TrEMBL record:
This is D-glycerate dehydrogenase. One of its GO terms (cellular component) is cytosol. PANTHER family: 2-HYDROXYACID DEHYDROGENASE-RELATED (PTHR10996), GLYOXYLATE REDUCTASE 1 (PTHR10996:SF257). Coiled coil: none annotated. It comes from Arthrobacter globiformis. Belongs to the D-isomer specific 2-hydroxyacid dehydrogenase family. Residues 4-319 form the D-isomer specific 2-hydroxyacid dehydrogenase catalytic domain. GO terms for molecular function: glyoxylate reductase (NADPH) activity; hydroxypyruvate reductase [NAD(P)H] activity; NAD binding.
Length: 319
């Protein structure tokens, strides 16, 4: 029997699955586990099932000890894990691709609609109690039909967002490290472009690339200036892909029309200027937040941990 540390609350069914085979120490406090408590608990662990709010770095791996075999993140993004540090120590790192693709694409499409149709503004207006009535020019937004969606990062979530946008009548361009499957490109009518061209031609730019040194502030002042002044930026990937201060200036000065954000550069803190602006829709990292999706994520993370503990290849290894 091995010792599995779960760093935060996850659906009970995943804990039960782990508990059927191993001793499980699961943090279930109402707040995130403190760093000191986390370092204390991981000592002697054979597996760590981590949430994206916990930093899994060399210090934590050392605190765990040489018996640690696997870090299974309950997320597809793994910028919270120092993967090279895991690899150096022979520790398997794993994530949860696939199971949150549709949920995250749904939120991307929701943000596209909220931003372009000014739904947040409308909701805030009604809740404020201010008088309003239908008017020919009242809260006019922008239609999606015939417009171009630029997808930055055309992996599973980017493709699923493109599929939804196509159903809304949008044309698709994408920027990606590699060409996508030609059959999928044909089905979506998607054309590959470099980032400069994508920014120049898109009416909505939606970010779906992983976060790392190569994508830190991928969208900064220069890229925002390259967008159409009528365009919108949507980010459901990771906050630091966007320079939030530059985005706030661009939105304030009307250099782009609007934005929809699910993730933040210094999450959970939101740039104070963004909070003041009407032309940005802000939601609190809800991309994968459905009961079904979170359950599937936790089960896949449990499967990753269990496989490694049994000496097998995990379903979704990173390294
Ligand atoms: C992920 O899995 O990386 C998502 O951001 C979680 O919502």
């Amino acid at each position: 029997m091995s010792r599995v540390v779960v760093t935060g609350r996850v659906p009970e069914i995943a804990i039960e699955k782990l508990r059927a085979e191993h001793e499980v120490d699961a943090w279930d406090g109402p707040e995130s586990i403190s760093r000191a408590e986390l370092l204390r608990r991981v000592a002697g662990a054979d597996a760590v099932v981590s949430l994206l709010t916990e930093r899994i770095d060399a210090e934590l791996l050392e605190a765990a000890g040489p018996q640690l075999k696997v870090v299974a993140n309950v997320a597809v993004g793994y910028d919270n894990i120092d993967v090279p540090a895991c690899t150096e120590r022979g520790i398997v790192a794993a994530n949860t691709p696939g199971v949150l693709t549709d949920a995250t694409a749904d939120i991307a499409l929701s943000l596209i609609l909220m931003a372009t149709r000014r739904l947040g503004e409308g909701e805030r207006l009604i809740r404020s109690g201010q008088a309003w009535k239908w008017g020919m020019f009242f809260l006019l937004g922008s239609s999606l039909q015939g417009k171009t969606l630029g997808v930055v990062g055309m992996g599973g979530i980017g493709q699923a967002t493109a599929r939804r946008a196509k159903a809304f009548g949008m044309e698709i361009v994408y920027q990606s490290r590699s060409e996508i499957d030609p059959g999928i490109a044909a089905e979506l009518g998607a054309r590959r472009a470099d980032l400069d061209e994508l920014l120049a031609v898109s009416d909505v730019v939606s970010l779906h690339c992983p976060y790392g040194p190569a994508t830190h502030h991928l969208i900064g002042a220069e890229q925002l200036a390259a967008m159409k002044s009528s365009a919108y930026l949507v980010n459901t990937a990771r906050g630091p892909i966007v320079d939030e201060a530059a985005l706030a200036s661009a939105l304030r000065e009307g250099r782009i029309a609007g934005a929809g954000l699910d993730v933040y550069e210094h999450e959970p803190r939101v740039h104070p200027e963004l909070l003041e602006l009407e032309n940005v829709t802000l939601v609190p990292h809800l991309g994968s937040a459905t009961v079904e999706t979170r359950t599937a994520m936790a089960m896949l993370a449990a499967d990753n941990a269990l496989a490694v503990l049994s000496g097998e290849q995990p379903p979704a290894p990173i390294n």
